[in-house]
Write a structure and sequence with these properties.
This protein has helices spanning 16-36, 44-47, 62-70, 97-111, 126-154, 157-180, 187-217, 223-255, 261-300, and strands at residues 41-42, 49-56, 78-83, 86-91, 116-124, 184-185. By secondary structure, it is α+β, with helices and mostly antiparallel strands. It folds into two domains: 13-41 and 128-300, Multidrug efflux transporter AcrB transmembrane domain (Multidrug efflux transporter AcrB transmembrane fold), CATH 1.20.1640.10; 49-124, Alpha-Beta Plaits (2-Layer Sandwich). β3 and β4 (86-91) form a beta hairpin. The longest helix is centred in the C-terminal third of the chain and has 40 residues, at 261-300. The chain is elongated, with a radius of gyration of 25 Å.
């Protein structure tokens, strides 16, 4: 199935100034959002604290749950509904046997005995949270470095540079989308970002491979024309691949439940931005790098 007819020649490179402006604006907005929010909204995996999953026999208003926790001096409780009559309560306090007893008594007093079930309690200490934060950052950075080495070996350094800048661009914007909506940054989100990096670089390499093939066919041909024709030749494949992935992610986003809601959200943003960067960011950077080398050679002469 071909959405783009053979011989189509959209001038993608000619729009580089517009697309670079759009990308710069999105990156700046993402960074400003993180700064203005005072950093990312780290979940318990990174910030430390206690998560209590409670299921009620009937509807339990968030205000009533908060009142129960306020009564035992847990005033920082954050309540999140995850299903019908089921909530997650997050607090920075460490969960001790004494506090657990108080929680049972408070919920019994507020809702009555047998009207609720504490299904799960998780506690992450601050040292563990800090260690997980460092490992998450290293995981993303090492994935970038690994891609840089592979593409530099598989193609050339300028292709590697274009691919990595596109990956950094995609990651920052995906994180910015989380920050703008004040969504929690958890280990699940780190998994989504690593998945996004793999998807985005795969799409970029397809375009790079076609550029290399077309250049071998005609070494005298202008690189601008080669990049444009290569993107156009792979455009049908790029659109179809992205469209099918987005359909699956939309199903997960709307039907997958609260557990994978944020995971699918990050991937939805990432697939759209990753497709955009493969076309408008990665390849034009290869062109810009070559133009820079040509200017240096002219200066030497």
């Amino acid at each position: 199935m071909e959405l783009i007819k053979p011989g189509t020649n959209f001038d993608f490179v000619g729009k580089i100034k517009i697309t670079v402006g759009i990308s710069a604006a999105l990156v700046v907005i993402s960074i400003l959002s993180v700064i203005l929010h005072g950093g990312l909204n780290f979940g318990i995996d990174f910030a430390g604290g206690t998560v209590i999953q409670i299921r009620f026999s009937g509807h339990a208003p968030a205000d009533a749950i908060r009142k129960a926790f306020t009564g035992i001096d847990v005033e920082d409780a954050v309540i999140q509904e995850i299903g019908e009559n089921e909530v997650i309560v997050r607090t920075n306090q460490a969960m001790t046997k004494e506090l657990q007893t108080k929680v049972d008594q408070a919920l019994t007093g507020q809702f009555g005995a047998g009207q609720y079930e504490i299904r799960q309690i998780e506690f992450v200490g601050p040292k563990v949270g800090k260690d997980l934060t460092n490992k998450a950052i290293l995981a993303v950075i090492f994935s970038w470095i690994g891609m840089l080495i592979y593409i530099a070996w598989r193609f050339e350094f300028r292709y590697a540079l274009g691919g990595i800048i596109a990956l950094v661009h995609d990651t920052i914007i995906a994180i910015g989308a989380l920050s703008l909506l004040n969504k929690e940054f958890t280990l699940t989100i780190v998994a989504a970002l690593l998945t996004l990096i793999g998807y985005s670089i795969n799409d970029t390499i397809v375009v790079f491979d076609r550029i290399r093939e077309n250049r071998k066919k005609d070494l005298r041909r202008n690189l601008v024309d080669i990049i444009n024709s290569s993107i156009n030749e792979t455009l049908s494949r790029t659109i179809l691949t992205s469209f099918t992935v987005i359909l699956v992610l939309l199903a997960l986003f709307f039907l997958g439940g609260a557990v994978i809601h944020d995971f699918s959200f990050v991937l939805l943003v990432g697939v759209v931005i990753g497709t955009y960067s493969s076309i408008f960011i990665a390849s034009p950077i290869v062109l810009a790098f070559e133009n820079l080398q040509l200017r240096r050679e002219k200066r030497k002469k």
